[in-house]
Amino acid sequence: MLKPNPLPREIAPGVFWLGDCLEQEYQGRPYHSYNAAFLLCGSEASMLVETGHPKDFPEIERQMLELLDRNLPPIKYLFITHQETPHSGGLGRVFQNWPDITVHGDIADYHLAFPQHADRLVPMEVGDEIDLGGRKFVAIEPVIRDLRTSLWGFDTGANCLFPGDGFAYSHYHLDGHCGLLAEEATSLDLKDVLAVFAERALFWTTTTDMNIYVDKLEALMEDLGVEVVAPTHGLPITNLAVTMPKVRDGLIADGDPEMTLGEPPVPAEGNAG
Asked: Bridge-partner residues for 140, per DSSP?
């Protein structure tokens, strides 16, 4: 039986995790993933990062309204890492339901889908900033891209990285991972789930030397002083020393044998779900 949605959750001061699980089955067990959004709150304004999957937007909006009832600053901005549906699928409803929000990022072709809202689209390039009051949101280079138009973000208040698909992985419902931080999901094989997600959603990562990209990612995070990672797909990371070595192993791993060998793996005894 599914538990109530544990989100929204504040993962760092002024950074709220929003969304709901996408349910599927893998190796005979309920396998979940997030198409998360985040609410970033300064002293003067708040920003929504991502819109979530279309199926989740009513729940994400409910969570936004719940948080705003706590006297948080008004939501003035929306940042989207790229145009893929799990990241931008709620954009039409944001335009409709939040008429004062402006949309930021590599806005590319959004004006073709929403020409009536073209005046609310504000392009961002690497280095551009939005001042929320007491903290800034900065557009940064995406090390691991899903689309050509991908763009990442960084919050100077909590030193929080918003990497879109950069840290993408799923989790197991029966192990109680839903709504946990990566460090709290102690039974999650992070190397395995990162490799599976990368092979199925970012197949280009299987045909290149990912050490190059992970080295660049680690250098970027060190330069920025990242302390928290808020991925669109995956559990947030708040202890980099514990989790980043596992992330590195997952990003350079060979992937899922079910995909590479053409035969399903044999579940370990007791893991039938």
From this structure: 152
Asked whether residue 96 is assigned to any structural domain, the reply reads yes
124 lies in some domain: yes
Across the chain, where does the E strand assignment appear? 9-12, 15-18, 21-26, 29-34, 37-41, 46-49, 75-79, 102-105, 121-123, 129-131, 136-140, 152-155, 160-162, 171-172, 228-229
Q: Collapsing DSSP states into helix, strand and coil, what is residue 47? A: strand
Query: For residue 46, what pLDDT is reported?
Result: 98
Say how many C-beta atoms besides its own lie within 10 A of residue 71's C-beta. Answer: 6
Q: What is the pTM of this model?
A: 0.85
**CB count in 10 Å sphere of residue 228:** 20
Residue 41 belongs to domain spanning: 9-190+219-239
Does the residue 148 lie in any domain? Answer: yes
Of 151, 137, 240, nearest in space to 190 by CA: 240
Domain count, the chain: 1
- Dihedral of the alpha carbons of 69, 73, 76, 77, in degrees to the nearest 10: -100
User: Within the chain, what is the greatest distance between any pair of CA atoms?
Assistant: 58
The whole-number pLDDT of residue 92 equals 94
Mean pLDDT of residues grouped by 10 in the chain (273 residues)? Answer: 77 95 74 86 98 91 95 96 87 95 93 95 97 98 83 97 83 76 82 68 70 88 96 91 84 53 39 36
pLDDT at residue number 197: 64
